[in-house]
Amino acid sequence: MTEEDLTKFRQLLIEQRDEYLETLRGSTESAKGMELDQQRVGRLSRMDAIQHQSISQAANRRIKKELQQIDAALDRIIDGSYGDCLACQLPIPHLRLEAIPHTPHCLSCASNM
Predict the structure, then answer these.
(1) What is the average pLDDT score of the chain?
(2) How many domains does the chain divide into?
(3) Ramachandran area for residue 41 (φ above 0: left; ψ -120 to 50: alpha; else beta)
(4) Domain of 79?
(5) Would the pTM of this model clear 0.85, i.e. be above it?
């Protein structure tokens, strides 16, 4: 992988990380939920609020996992192992990296996991 490729992928990863961090900041409030006045709000509204909170929390967990994978990919750029599959050590095709820049595995190894 050329230095130009690494620069391109580093920039993609940083942009992706910034987008996820912004999304996470905005969705943290949704995940907290809201206090509902038991006397004024019906059972269905409470159930809807709980479901919305649960969905927001699940989305936040997914975003945090993606952020960890992005940080790991940035670390691999620094240590020189970016672009090589962690399982088989073969190069990950550029098309896969362009689609999922933080992927640690080639398609073959990812499908076997």
Answers:
(1) 87
(2) 1
(3) beta
(4) 3-111
(5) no
